[in-house]
Please model this.
Amino acid sequence: MKNIVYATSEAVPFIKTGGLADVAGSLPKCFDKNYFDIRVILPKYACMKQEWKDRMEYITHFYMDLGYKNCYVGIMHIEYEGIHFYFIDNEYYFSGPHPYDGGTWDLEKFAFFSKAVLSVLPVIGFQPQIIHCHDWQTGLVPVYLHDTFQQNPFFWGIKTIMTIHNLKFQGVWDVKTIQSITGLSNYYFTPDKLEAYKDANYLKGGLVFADAITTVSNTYAEEIKTPFYGEGLDGLMRARTNSLRGIVNGIDYDEFNPATDPHIAQTYDARTFRKEKVKNKLALQADLGLNQDPDVMLIGIVSRLTDQKGFDLIAYIMDELCQDAVQIVVLGTGEERYENMFRHFDWKYHGKVSAQIYYDEPLSHRIYAASDAFLMPSLFEPCGLSQLMSLRYGTLPIVRETGGLKDTVEPYNEYEGTGTGFSFTNYNAHEMLSTIRYAERIYYDNRHEWNQMIDRAMAADFSWHNSARQYEEMYNWLIGE
Ligand code: ADP
Ligand code: GLC
Model:
């Protein structure tokens, strides 16, 4: 049996702010249980739903040093869909209204979490061959493992993997503060270890000390070796190119299934979408105050409202786009300027634009099901899950060719009758607008072709099946089998 621990700051269904949670919660279920015992460790946040907190069983607690502090570490446990989830309990660190607050508090919180991940392993009696770490919040796991934990033979030979879900977030603060928070010695704060541009950098530490590095698509794995996408770490990515690989994300095909989805008004599948899918559009239009019209092309957006997702482009052409025969529905939260931008257009084009500025899982499913097209013109996109959800629901993605969007959406080719969506290359608002208008033309003038594209989109396989095999291969290779 191969024992593997996932260290992550979020995982569905317990806590989610973005795609990381979908991956960390759904991937562990997709391994062969005869060979792999995958267990997940995450914080127990006060902001988790009461339902989950009630279901947690207390295992034990102990105290752990962190810098000059001595901290309580509680261990809670839930077995969910055959996977053991362990929750690190500490009300001092994990009591805020959100998992992340920004700033130095997050750095202390996740230094605590990373050290606790290692400390609980002997206590729960689970000795992994591999610890698979996700994003900067767990960057210190490989570092601490390399440090004092080596005094305990329990930890000898454990390998680490660092998966980059988003290189933009690195966990950076000044060296002095981080040294006192983490209790790590001077040895670690040099430019070949945690230091980057004079500051201390958690993700960099993880990337330097991990045995293998992955990211969530092949294209992003290449992009991050260049200055434009490398967020200052492209040199390190180039240096570690032999240890770096891209494995594209999948989605949970049971959770996201238009044939069985309890959240949507009308279920449908690859055979029935021509007749049934539109009922979701009519229901959504009624619910969200859009003009009732089965024929109008409905464009959906479900997203964190940040720079990364290309909202500058949308802001730039929104007035022009709204002259067309389209409706636009947005579900998202994030930067105030984008929230207000969409509120403004909802007011200005009422009945045509609907802005839902909050977080709502069931509504996201209804938008994936109801829309004809899904817009995701990201500036950069490590993988992106929303376009995979759209494909699954027969909603054709319109994307910029970057990162995982490039690897998962095949652009329509009208001469060969291939493709599952529409894409453009440059980060340019009018290039995006003409691509949207091209999609409009196919939608209105050639519905037969459009529906065939839906056939192909719904037939594409972005379940975890293939990618989980690639992770298995990597685990086997690291363990030396
Ligand atoms: P990222 O992780 O960069 O935010 P992804 O496309 O990988 O982007 O994953 C985003 C996930 O979060 C998707 O599952 C998407 O449906 C969901 N999501 C984003 N915003 C909202 C929202 N306001 N309400 C519900 N789900 C949302
Ligand atoms: C990050 C990326 C997104 C990716 C997700 C899960 O949030 O922004 O592209 O799909 O992680 O890997």
